[in-house]
Model the fold of this input.
Amino acid sequence: MTRKIVRTAIVLLPLCLGGCLWADAIDGSSWSRETVAKIEVGKTTRAQVLEWLGPPRQLLRLTEGEALVYSCSLEKSTGFSIIVASTWRNDKQYDAVTVIVNRDGIVTAVGSRFDRDKSAHGMPW
Done:
């Protein structure tokens, strides 16, 4: 009888000490492609960019103006653990917009990428 209990405990113990993880983490504010598309080189002002996109994550001073850098990431994590054996998978993708503004406060260049939606959960092995 005692051996049966010990064997059952040995089989069930790893299940009790293990676990799974399925998580999403967003870092930063997001904006739509349509909002970014409203920014026109030579027409849009710095004030309009701040109104539409909010405060930048980073502000870089340039010789002839400044760069407003926006970014937002989405990280999806999946994990599995039993006692001492663990395996994890993280997939982090970014949306980013950089707007160059001259000394007069007019946009002179815009660059963007939208990859945040490509972040995916997956099996960690």
